[in-house]
Structures are given as C-alpha cells and as structure tokens.
Amino acid sequence: MPSDTRLAVVTGSSSGIGQAIALALLDQGWRVCGFDVSPPTIERTGFEAMQVDLCDGAATTAAATKVTDASALVHAAGVLRVGPLGQLNAEAGALMWRLHVEAVTRLADVLLPAMAAGGHGRVVLVGSRVAQGKAGRSQYAATKAALLGLARSWAAEVIASGVTVNVISPAATQTAMTDDPARQAAAPVLPPIGRLIRPDEIASLVAYLLSPAAAAITGQDIQICGGASLAR
User: Fold this and answer.
1) With helix as H, strand as E and coil as C, how does 41-86 read?
2) pLDDT of 148-157, one tens digit each?
3) Is the pLDDT of residue 163 over 70?
4) Hey, CA dihedral for 140, 146, 150, 155, is it positive or negative?
5) Which of 3, 39, 73, 204 has the greatest count of CB atoms below 10 A from its CB?
6) 153: exposed, middle or buried (C-beta count within 10 Å: 0-12, 13-18, 19+)?
7) Nearest alpha carbon to residue 13 among 3, 5, 24
8) Neighbour count for residue 96 (Cβ, 10 Å)
9) Which of 131, 126, 122, 127 is nearest to 155 (CA)?
10) C-alpha distances out from residue 57 to 18, 37, 109, 110, Å
11) Closest to 73 measured CA to CA, from 33, 17, 129
C-alpha cells in the first residue's frame, strides 16, 4: 500500500468494536495501526499491530511516539466493571479510568498536535449512553462522561487547524464485553429496536466521521441508541 495512504490509529483492534472499525477502515483504503494488549486478530494488507498495554502510561506514550504520520485516532478500547454503592471497587474504577481516559489522553497529547500542524486530522472516541448515568455503573459512567469533556475541549483547541474530535455513544452492543462474567449481575437491556447494536454499525459511523464529508462535524456526542433515547 502506498506510504501516502491515510493512517488511522485504532485502539482495541483485536476484538469487538475496535476490530470492526479497523476492518471497515481497511476496506475503505486506510492503513491501520492497531493498539491492543492482546495479540492481533487481523491479517490484512495495510494493517500493522502494536501490542501495548494501554493501562501502562509510559508504554502508551512510547507507542504513540512511534507513529509519525497518523491522520486519525479512534479510541475503542474498553472494559466494563459494575457495582452498586456500598460495593464499589476502587481497583476496578482505576482500571477503567486508566484505559478509557488516561490512555487516550496520552495518545492525543502526542498525535493531535502533529495532526494540527499538518492541517488535517480526525479523532473519534467511543463513549457510551451510560455516560448519562445508570444505577450500578457509576464508575464506568464517570469514565465515559469524561470522554465528552475531553472531546469538546480538544475540538475547541484544534478546529481552526482542520482537526475534528467527536464521540460516538452506542447503546448495549453485541461484543465479548456483553458476555463478560464480571457483569453477569447486570445483563444488557435491549433497546427498542429489539436487538443489541452491532459493531459494524458503529464502524460505519466512525468511517463517515473520518471522511472529508464530515469536516464540519466536531465536538459532538452522536448516539447509536436503537431508539433508547426516544421519549416513551
């Protein structure tokens, strides 16, 4: 693939939403550098895997500095731990904060200034509708809500340089996280559409937001909710 082909850094690329995003971008001719602690699951021309523990701050920063020509960053890596008041787990909360918030902060601190200097770039953070608040998921909700603050702040900083920053907040999505034993006591609720959101549906919206046609969309939280946000 030509060296001038657009390069996207996608976190969580070995499974679930991140994997679907990486595949969708490859189909559209992007080069993709996948950041994941797990071994790569994609073998495609244009895909490069960088095995890194995104909960390790120094390792995350070091990995970001090895990517010199990224024009897009998609943060899809995530984990869910649940717990009600009286049973909150500080270690679980810290894990989610490191992976959801600190990791992308370190990546953006390296990659966004380079995008801004080049006059073009796209950032998409995968949030969650739970950011609005949900019983038993306060720690998870807090980390996803933090992504909204980061996105709007970064968007304000780089919009004049041709870089956009947005959040996609899906409802319950059919991934391995849905079947995680750590959330057996909090099964996902089907949205009104009658099924879970598919990873490829999220990937399609990411691909659009990374396209030239989406240049005027920035600082937004776009929900893929299957009707869950409709007044009923």
Assistant:
1) CCCCCCEEEEECCCCCHHHHHHHHHCCCCCCEEEECCCCCCCCCCC
2) 999 999 999 9
3) yes
4) positive
5) 73
6) exposed
7) 24
8) 21
9) 122
10) 20, 13, 12, 13
11) 33
Which residues have C-beta within 8 Å of that of residue 202, sequence separation ≥ 6? 17, 20, 21, 126, 168, 170, 173, 224
Is residue 202 within 8 A of residue 164, CB to CB? The reply is no
Query: Considering only CA atoms, which of 79, 90, 89 is closest in space to residue 181?
Result: 79
How far is it, in rounded angstroms, from Cα 205 to Cα 85?
Answer: 35
| Angle formed at CA 117 by CA 211 and CA 72, multiple of 5 degrees | 30
Question: In the chain, where do the E strands start and end?
Answer: 7-11, 31-36, 47-51, 72-75, 121-126, 163-170, 221-224
Phi then psi for residue 31, to 5 deg, are -85, 145
Specify the length of the chain in residues: 232
Which pLDDT score, from 0 to 100, does residue 5 have? 75
Structure tokens at 41: 């699951």
User: Token pair 């920063």 is at which residue?
Assistant: 61
Return the H-helix or E-strand segment holding 99: none
* 115-141: pLDDT as tens digits: 999 999 999 999 999 999 999 999 999
pLDDT given for residue 188 in this prediction = 76
Q: How is residue 61 written in tokens?
A: 């920063």
